[in-house]
Amino acid sequence: MELIEVKISDITLTNVGFAVFLRPKENHDSKVVPIFIGPLETHAITSILDGVTPPRPMTHDLMMMIIPALGAKIVKITIDEIVDNTFFAKISVRKDEEILLIDARPSDSIAIALRAEAPIYITKNVLDEAGVVMKDGEIPGETLPEDSSEEEISTGTGAVTTRSPLEILQDSLAAAIKAEDYESAANLRDQIKKMIENS
User: Fold this and answer.
1) What are the pLDDT digits (tens) for 106-117?
2) Most exposed of 85, 88, 164, 187 (fewest Cβ within 10 Å)?
3) Please, what are the domains in the chain?
4) Model pTM?
């Protein structure tokens, strides 16, 4: 199984939801892999990229406190499979001389890898199947093909439901409030306000 190390090239709100775009570190070609993720997972990833420290540990931060306390270390994460438009990932954890493989969603895996400063890999099969060719100067997320693979908003039939960016943000805000994630809710509220002001 050939593994390719990737980096985050962008995280953006597309016409079908939030997406994280992964690009090979070594330029195999101009492909990027878009993975659709939920608003709370988006916040978990962007907060670490932006260097934002929450007043209290969020779920991924808490995991990064627990894992070392158990004498273990995150080695890498691998996005290794795509089945019915859903991505699958594994977190490799070293405990003494043993490597444990833990199944996880790509969004959670990426959030943990960033906190652990661990490499992110994708299999060549997934890159070949889900990779989208980006032209020079093209902004990721502007024009994704309708069959773009999704992680969390798949309908189960492969269909993509198109909603306006404002509707997506409003639904995300409702989900954040329901989950009592008020930090994400405040961030989403500000994005909605800015979008309405600029419309």
Assistant:
1) 999 999 999 999
2) 164
3) 3-162 (3.10.690.10)
4) 0.72
